[in-house]
Amino acid sequence: MRRTIDWADDAVVVIDQTALPGEFRLLRLRTVGELVDAVKRLAVRGAPALGAAGALGVALAARTSEDVEADAELIATARPTAVNLAWGVERALKKLPQGPDAVLEEAKALLTEDEELNKAASEHAAEVVLRACPRRPLRLLTHCNAGRLATVGWGSALGVVWHLHDRGLVEEVLVDETRPLLQGARLTAWELAQENVPHRVQPDGAAAAAMAKGMVDCVLVGADRIAANGDVANKIGTYGLAIAAKHHDIPFVVVAPSSTVDTSLATGAGIAIEERDARELTHYAGTPIAPDGTRVFNPAFDVTPHELVTAVVTERGRYEP
Question: Does pTM surpass 0.85?
Answer without folding.
Answer: yes
